[in-house]
Structure formats: C-alpha cells, structure tokens
Amino acid sequence: MIVKLRRKYARYPDLTRGLSYVVIGIEANDFRILNDQGRPYLYPSRLFEIIDPYKPDDWVTERGEEGECYAYPSPLNACGFFEDFFDAKPKAVATFWRIVNQRLATATRPRQRAASST
C-alpha cells in the first residue's frame, strides 16, 4: 500500500507533503510508515491519499471490536513487537529491517494485473 500526504500538517513535521510513503502496517486504521527520519511511526490514515491500495497477500489482517483494521506482515504482527523494536532489542530490530527492506524493494515494482477480457 502506498500513500501520499494530502497537505503539510504542523502537528506532523516529520512528514512531507506530496511524498509517497509505503505503508508497512495498519493499527486501529492508522498507517505505520517510515517518516522522513526513517522511524516507523503510526499516523492517522485521514492524513493520506491512497495511491496504491494493494496490501501484500502475506499480511495478517484482523478486525477489532469496533471494526477497526489491524494488518501487518506476519513477522511484525506479534504482540509487543514494536515495543521490542523501540527498546532496541536486537532480534526485533533485525526482523523489522529485514521485512521492511523486502517491502520497500518490491513496493514500487509494477505488479502484473489480470488482463481484462473485452
């Protein structure tokens, strides 16, 4: 999933208007993206225009009690994963960057779309 910031927000100085960001996860409908400093923070989805809605097939997607979406690649979906990442636990940091680098490498590649029959 690729999104673009709709406009500049004073509250979010770590994002740039017009830049595209690869969504690396969704938590309670918020998008986890790498901000301009390379940190994987959560931002309200309403701040963004969706450029490419494709969610990778290997994302684990769940719905909360109020219908909110939670979706992450399986290795990043463990309870407490991001707490471990921000606490700089080596296993979480290594796992995070391995998965994110894979996502970034494939995010901008054109995907083959099914040919429409006419």
Write structural notes for this entry.
By secondary structure, the protein is α+β, with helices and mostly antiparallel strands. It has one domain. It has two helices and seven strands. The protein is globular, with a radius of gyration of 15 Å. It starts with a strand and ends in an 11-residue tail after the last helix.
Keywords:
single chain, 118 residues, alpha+beta, 2 helices, 7 strands, 20% helix, globular, disordered C terminus
What would a concise description of this structure say?
The chain has 118 residues and is α+β, with helices and mostly antiparallel strands. It is built from two helices and seven strands, in the order βββββββαα. Strands 1, 2, 3, 4, 5, 6 and 7 form a seven-stranded antiparallel β-sheet that branches.
**How large is the radius of gyration?**
15 Å
User: How much helix is in the residues?
Assistant: 10-25%
Major sheet size, sense and barrel closure = 7 strands, antiparallel
Distance between the termini: 28 Å
Total DSSP helices? 2
Residue share in β-strands: 25-35%
Instruction: Sum up the overall morphology in one term.
Output: globular
Secondary-structure element order, N to C: EEEEEEEHH
Rounded average pLDDT: 89
Based on secondary structure, the structural category is alpha+beta
Total beta strands: 7
Count of structural domains: 1
**Regions with pLDDT < 50 over 5+ consecutive residues?**
112-118
SSE arrangement:
Blueprint: E1 2-5, E2 20-27, E3 30-34, E4 40-43, E5 48-52, E6 59-63, E7 69-73, H1 81-86, H2 90-107
Antiparallel strand pairs: 1-2, 1-5, 2-3, 2-7, 3-4, 6-7
